[in-house]
Amino acid sequence: MGDDSEWMKLPVDQKCEHKLWKARLSGYEEALKIFQKIKDEKSPEWSKFLGLIKKFVTDSNAVVQLKGLEAALVYVENAHVAGKTTGEVVSGVVSKVFNQPKAKAKELGIEICLMYIEIEKGEAVQEELLKGLDNKNPKIVVACIETLRKALSEFGSKIILLKPIIKVLPKLFESREKAVRDEAKLIAVEIYRWIRDALRPPLQNINSVQLKELEEEWVKLPTGAPKPSRFLRSQQELEAKLEQQQSAGGDAEGGGDDGDEVPQIDAYELLEAVEILSKLPKDFYDKIEAKKWQERKEALEAVEVLVKNPKLEAGDYADLVKALKKVVGKDTNVMLVALAAKCLTGLAVGLRKKFGQYAGHVVPTILEKFKEKKPQVVQALQEAIDAIFLTTTLQNISEDVLAVMDNKNPTIKQQTSLFIARSFRHCTASTLPKGLLKPFCAALLKHINDSAPEVRDAAFEALGTALKVVGEKAVNPFLADVDKLKLDKIKECSEKVELVHGKKAGLAADKKEFKPAPGRTAASGAAGDKDTKDISAPKPGPSKKAPATKAGGPPKKGKPAASGGAGGTGTKNKKGLETKEIVEPELSIEVCEEKASAVLPATCIQLLDSSNWKERLACMEEFQKAVELMDRTEMPCQALVRMLAKKPGWKETNFQVMQMKLHIVALIAQKGNFSKTSAQIVLDGLVDKIGDVKCGNNAKEAMTAIAEACMLPWTAEQVMSMAFSQKNPKNQSETLNWLSNAIKEFGFSGLNVKAFISNVKTALAATNPAVRTSAITLLGVMYLYVGPSLRMFFEDEKPALLSQIDAEFEKMQGQSPPAPTRGISKHSISGTDEGEDGDEPDEGGNDVVDLLPRTEISDKITSELVSKIGDKNWKIRKEGLDEVAGIINEAKFIQPNIGELPTALKGRLNDSNKILVQQTLNILQQLAVAMGPNIKQHVKNLGIPIITVLGDSKNNVRAAALATVNAWAEQTGMKEWLEGEDLSEELKKENPFLRQELLGWLAEKLPSLRSTPTDLILCVPHLYSCLEDRNGDVRKKAQDALPFFMMHLGYEKMAKATGKLKPTSKDQVLAMLEKAKANMPAKPAASAKAASKPMGGSAPAKFQPASAPVEDSVSSPVEPKPDPKKAKALGVSSKAKSAQGKKVPSKTSLKEDEDKSGPIFIVVPNGKEQRMKDEKGLKVLKWNFTTPRDEYIEQLKTQMSSCVAKWLQDEMFHSDFQHHNKALAVMVDHLESEKEGVIGCLDLILKWLTLRFFDTNTSVLMKALEYLKLLFTLLSEEEYHLTENEASSFIPYLILKVGEPKDVIRKDVRAILNRMCLVYPASKMFPFIMEGTKSKNSKQRAECLEELGCLVESYGMNVCQPTPGKALKEIAIHIGDRDNAVRNAALNTIVTVYNVHGDQVFKLIGTLSEKDMSMLEERIKRSAKRPSAAPIKQVEERPQRTQSINSNANMLRKGPAEDMSSKLNQARSMSGHPEAAQMVRREFQLDLDEIENDNGTVRCEMPELVQHKLDDIFEPVLIPEPKIRAVSPHFDDMHSNTASTINFIISQVASGDINTSIQALTQIDEVLRQEDKAEAMSGHIDQFLIATFMQLRLIYNTHMADEKLEKDEIIKLYSCIIGNMISLFQIESLAREASTGVLKDLMHGLITLMLDSRIEDLEEGQQVIRSVNLLVVKVLEKSDQTNILSALLVLLQDSLLATASSPKFSELVMKCLWRMVRLLPDTINSINLDRILLDIHIFMKVFPKEKLKQCKSEFPIRTLKTLLHTLCKLKGPKILDHLTMIDNKNESELEAHLCRMMKHSMDQTGSKSDKETEKGASRIDEKSSKAKVNDFLAEIFKKIGSKENTKEGLAELYEYKKKYSDADIEPFLKNSSQFFQSYVERGLRVIEMEREGKGRIPSSTGISPQTEVTCMSAPTSTVSSIGNTNGEEVGPSVYLERLKILRQRCGLDNTKQDDRPPLTSLLSKPAVPTVASSTDMLHSKLSQLRESREQHQHLDLDSHQTHSSGTTTTSSSSTANIDDLKKRLERIKSSRK
After folding, report:
1. Which residues of 282-297 are buried (b: 16+ CB within 10 A; e: fewer)?
2. Confidence class for position 1972, pLDDT limits 50, 70, 90
3. How far apart are CA 1951 and CA 1051, in angstroms?
């Protein structure tokens, strides 16, 4: 038992998996106990066993397996995770349990399966069980069937899907195993219990014996509807409720459920569809046309056999239907007609809804064929038409049916009426709305008066059926004129009718009728159900009895009527009377007099025709009193008006009497029950008086009263015909005016548009202008109701008139029709409620449309035209389409019958020629407008194929298809589209274009629907597959559509539909559903329905008075789209929605009074961040579209509403562009004042501007661009950075505009793009612009390419994203573009890169075609020929960029951390731009300001300046980083082991690996920059310099030649080297350690670098050279003077000897020597002259005078002479003592030369002074001798030459010259250098100006020509001359020099500063005095400084610190304490004094 003890210790879950059966048994038992104990279904304990449950049920040991099954059952019942195991466990049960011999095992297995079903996993279980039916083991099959049977018995047919089971039943019945057959029988009986006869068709083919047995079993079943006995977890509450009911003994609910359960399964659904089209005989279409009837019969019989299949597969049956239709309509053999009808019946039955699209073609043919008398034909036709009716809706075929109703043949009339009756039986109150019922009733009413009794009976039956279906309430208005006998007959028929939907449907309808709709007041109920469309709306008497026939009618009826506000009973009573009078017979004059005398005073009647007007007037007054007192019921209206019309009648001459008369007519009409008969008596007279000045108003009042009594449509028609039958234009114009007004008061319903239009046309042609004006006004009013279609009737009017009409329409645009105020009370006391009729809004819309006269065009659609459209030649097809377009255009409005056109057009929708497809789409669009709502019947056969076109690959075709679908949907509403499977079939196609367009369309349409057909659920599985489509756009569209599907279908249905998905997909989809559930919009309110109708405007007018809030319905037409969209965008509730709507109409009136002061942008804290979050979280639409759809505009509007002033928003979203201009003007005005607001709403402003880019109006576009320029300037000033969100939703749309044809717009866009680089990194702009190069617009491509070139030129290669290689390859593609401009732009861009990057470009662009490559090479050659011109040109072309860049360089550094590096690079690359000459100057001026007032020491300050400059040159800067961070760890241990560390690092400087070298240099730089650490370098200087020039040599020889190396790397290395050296030569103590040999090599390396032409070609090359230039100056100044002089002499000697050396090299060495010569006066004392003279001696030995003279250039000999001359002058004769180091002086040419010089200078001085004295004698005191004068001047010049007294000396010289104006100082100046002479002259001039108070000399006086040589300018003079526009000095180096001088002068330099006057470093003059020279050089600066010194002292502290932190160097000065700064400032002040 040792083993036992081992497994006993194991935990339960491990025991369950143990290999020993005992262990497993024990494990299962323990697990069972654990499962029973766990109370919490979500306990984590359950999850431990998740993977083991399958093992529980599939255990190999039978005993153990039983225990495992028990445990598994408990697990499944209690664990919430059990569902995850369904598949594996049930398949385990099927395969391993159902085959067990033990019954207990099988029972437990079945129980487990049922338990899984209970926990909602029914589908998975069923799937596994059905798989089990295919098992070879019959035991398993039997068990599976039994399980399914039990499941069905317990859970019912709602949970267990019957279709898949029924599908396999026949196979089970054929099994060889009896047990299987028996079990199959049992389950068949169980299924029959649930679905009854629906099971018969699928089993019709099984063995007859079995079928008979089944029948027997079926008969025994109880008839009651079965109920599920077990429920899903989610339904358990229901179960509990059921139990309670049963225990209470009442099974009431059960009864109610009957209807629900029984018809639930349709046999049709259970059948397999059969495909028959392919099985048609090959020659079918030939045979059906055959001459012999036998052949035709064969063909039909073949079809008949095929269509007997009860379910047919969908396909294109158009041709087959066409053939059958032809037989029915044209075949002479009646037998074949019947046969064809049978075939059609079979098709209709087999296809069901799918046959609907053909119904319209066949119905008219069948109905007309009813003329056949033969019973079998009639019966076949009846069956056919009834079957067809079930495939479509009554609405769709109503037109065809009504057309046949007017047929003369009585049989046709009879059969049509009977068909209508049968059709009505299938309808319910909701599917038979008033709008549909009305035309049918009208037609049937004609038939009840027909001469043929069978026609009358059929009509009675149809009307009776209608009465039964919709109840009396709805039908009575149409039966107003029917006499009682007939009415009783109709009722009698109605009682006999049996409805298809059971009696209940009718009753329900009736019940509904009498309930006032919830939420409405009873009063409005009373006012509701008028049918204003019907002229004779008042109801006949019997209608009052009607309710009594229904139980419970009267009390309900009474309630709304009584509360109807008008005093219930009285009003009702009146109604009854009026009904009788409405057809009042005309009374004779005698009867009238008799009736009148009964109610009027006798005198009154006598005086009516008195000749005295006063008597007549008195008579009228009495008449009026009498009428006022009369009771309504007793008033004989006809008699009274007859009396009024009695002579003189309407010819009354006295206006007072006439006014009274007219007033009385109005009174009678208002107070009495006024009939049309009465009206006809007076109307003529009223019309005659309407134009009368005095009586006109009274006449109008009377007319209005009559209109109210007799309804406006009738009155208006009468009045119009009377007015236009007479000649008086005044009457005509006033009648039109009255009508305009009346329409507004009464509303438009029921008016006969056609009649008006002909009258209006007459009026428009009138000669009298008043009549024309009135007609146009009337048209304006009609336009409010009819909409734009009204214009079509007047298109043939004269242009002038048409423009007036258009202007009137324009005025009405956007207005909504007013709510009717009259004509309501009388016609609406019908006791029912508006809400009773859900489709009411429909009518309003269709009403007007129905009134438009429609042309029949079917006769024009000839077979020739149809064959043309289908011709093989596309040109002929096009002709055919053109003809169709012409026909439709001509007809304007057409009738729905268009013959064969639909099939012909459908064929063209998949034409191979896309132009024809587009043309067809345009025709279909026209067709929709022309046919109006009747287009509904063509949705299935033509509309769905349009949707298929949405899958076209061409964008424009898709757009056209979408427009067409929208045009159709506008006419038809969405119901027709969503019904049936067609739409889901389209969505099923895996075409990404089709899917995304269709989903987009649905997402747009669904939100506005109040309800959708159930078929929408069919789309859901395909929607789910779209959610996982490969195409991202499809996925996005599917996600967008999800909430709207859910809005209609509900979450539960949607979640249930995920059951069929794979588990992974299911989880994802469920997650999306959850998300969509949160965003699900509310269903739109009723008003949305009105809005979605085609003529939204007219709908509300019809029912407004009845429905409560008027504004609400008004808002819908004004702004139909926003509501649902808004709801979608932000989940707005419908309340908010309607509120939004309500604001709109009042907009216009508010605008004037609205307060426009106050801010236009409201700052919402975190508003922008929230919007970005919403967009990221997909709560709102991402701003990404090809053209802005309405939902985007609405979303933006909603987002703006919280942060933009209301009035501005109205302007911004106005439909008129001028308002946009206004809005932009306001925004420009507020830009400066509301910076914060602008930045807070920036994302919205930019989005709104992108919408403006899609406007066609140029003025708006220009204004928008103007605003953008200002905006981006402001943003850059504010140092704002565009967020990614703002950039991505704006830049792509801005780039679209760069391709505009107008030059000025393109320029503006480019300027904006330039400015954008200041607020958004260029490297991120690059990809957007790159995207722009892919446009179809060639201008855009070219401009984008140019812009890319400019970016590269300005910012270097690093802007190229993702990599330079990829970017250039993309650009290079365009070299082969068709468009010349694009090719050029691409070439120029690559040439730009070439200029920056050299030959490496070719490697980056990859392989090009030969042609492209040759173009590129040619272009590069050309550009190389003019290098010097290019840079200057670029500066001119792109000044904005360069200047603005610089001014904002510092700003860019303040960006958020994310952008820091790119911003820095940008800033650097900008400020290092070599062409930007002004920029450099500005850069330095900025620094001058700071430095002249400086407060830091040179040591730390100088590198900051230089480094700032260098940093900015190189994009990928590495140097700055270490400066920011602390000193590197290498140097922390410096004090312990400094030397070895430094040696190691220095050795790395010369490394061949660039990065290693850079790192080492960086570390050394850190040391050099920190004063306390710099000493550590002492002793290592030579070593360091050697390493450096070795590296320089390595770069020069190796790296530069290596094409693989990125040149930026080299530039980076150069920058590090130069930076380091500058730092080193800043520190004089270290600089002096450099030895001669090392300096010589260093200078050699540096000069070589300056001359390296390869560097010049690089983008940053010029800057490197400038920096080297600067460094050389530093080396010359700071290193040991002896060493450097010596080094230069040796270098010059070497360079002159080396033949390979370029003359430029020697020239630069000599320039260095000249610089040294200039420094000599200061440094002479520190120089070891002996060594220098030795070097000169050696030089002269190598190059004797003769040899030097042979040199091409005279520079070497002049240089030597100048050097010696200066030395002689400075040392005098003492110089000869310094030749000690020369071995044999005598042989030395040097000594001889020096002696000559000394002698020459002595002579010269003597001889000159003699002459001098003579000239000057008269001016000096006679006695003073020449010597004295000489001494005096010599003294002055000596002062000028000395450092301290230079100013004093100049002042004395000035005084002297002033005193002795003729004094000659020439001799003293002659000896000195040119520079000194000009210096003295300038000094004197300065003093002169100072003394005369003229201020200082402007700097443009210039520097002597020599200066250019003395500046260490770069070898090419172009650099120094660039930008030298105002004669200022040249090159940044000059300024740097000045800065240094100023520093030194201010005592800010290092220790030995005082030894030499530093100014000489720039000016080649001996002993230059300090102050004067600085005054001279920087006079203007200093004067400014002096004026604002105090200011600067404060300011400078800040500016200096910000400067040092802004640039990336750390400066010790920023930490200096204040005292130190104060001392320094004092020193500066004193030095200035």
Report:
1. eebeebbeeeeeeebb
2. very low
3. 85
Reduce the secondary structure of 1591-1614 to three states and give it as a string.
Answer: HHHHHHHCHHHCCCCCHHHHHHHH
| DSSP assignment letter at 538 | S
Q: Where are the beta strands (DSSP E) in 1363-1471?
A: none
1107 close to 1113: Cβ distance less than 8 angstroms: yes
Q: Which of 1348, 1419, 1338 is nearest to 1381 (CA)?
A: 1338
Q: What is the pLDDT of residues 586-598, one digit of tens each?
A: 888 888 888 888 8
- The answer to whether 888 touches 919, Cβ cutoff 8 Å, is no
Query: What confidence tier does 1947 reach under pLDDT thresholds 50, 70, 90?
Result: low
Secondary structure (3-state) at 1161: strand
Residue 13 burial (10 A CB sphere; 0-12, 13-18, 19+): middle
Q: What is the pTM of this model?
A: 0.38
Return d(Cα 1092, Cα 1668) in angstroms, integer.
76
- Residue 703: partners with Cβ closer than 8 Å, 6 or more residues away: 683, 686, 690, 715, 719, 738, 742
* DSSP conformation letters of 37-94: H---TT-HHHHHTTTTHHHHHT-SSHHHHHHHHHHHHHHHHH-TTGGGGHHHHHHHII
The one-letter amino acid at 2019: D
> What is the DSSP secondary-structure string of 1257-1304?
-HHHHHHHHHHHHHHHHHHHHTT----HHHHHTTHHHHHHGGG-S-HH
The span from the CA of 1356 to the CA of 1322, in Å, is: 10
The gap from C-alpha 1634 to its chain's centroid, in whole angstroms, comes to 67
Tokens 């709109």 belong to which residue? Answer: 1144
Packing angle of the helix pair 178-195, 208-220 (nearest 10 deg): 50
Tell me how many helices (H) and strands (E) the chain has: 112, 0
Q: Three-state secondary structure along 1987-2002?
A: HCHHHHHHHHHHHHHH
Q: Phi and psi (nearest 5°) for 220?
A: -70, -20
pLDDT at 1738: 84
pLDDT band of residue 1946 (cuts 50, 70, 90) is: low
Residue 1893 near residue 1972, CB atoms below 8 Å: no
The one-letter code for the residue type at 1047 is M
Peptide bond between residue 1362 and the one before it cis (omega within 30 degrees of 0): yes
The values of phi and psi at residue 430, to 5°, are -80, -30
- 1101: its two tokens: 């007018």
Secondary structure of residue 953 in the 3-state scheme? coil
Residue 1396 sits at the vertex; the CA angle it makes with 1390 and 1401, to the nearest 5 degrees, is: 45
**Coil, helix or strand at residue 1369:** helix
Which amino acid is it at 1372?
A
Cis omega (within 30 of 0) for bond into 729: no
Question: Token pair 């360089």 is at which residue?
Answer: 1449
In this structure, what token pair is assigned to residue 381? Answer: 């036709």
CA-wise closest residue to 163 among 174, 152, 150: 152
- Cα–Cα dist 1902/2000, whole Å: 31
Cβ 366 vs Cβ 328: under 8 Å: yes
Of 478, 523, 481, 538, give the one whose Cα is nearest residue 673: 538
Amino acid found at 177: E
Distance CA 338, CA 301 (A): 11
Rounded distance between C-alpha atoms, residue 1102 and residue 748, angstroms: 7
Backbone angles phi, psi at 1464, to 5 degrees: -65, -45
- Rounded CA separation 14/18 (Å): 6
Greatest Cα pair distance in the chain: 169
Which residue in 808, 907, 904, 920 sits closest to 863, CA to CA? 904
Joined together, the tokens standing for residue 823 give 């004509």
At residue 1161, φ and ψ (nearest 5 deg) are -115, 125
> Residue 1078 in 3-state DSSP?
helix
Q: How far apart are CA 1239 and CA 1162, in angstroms?
A: 11
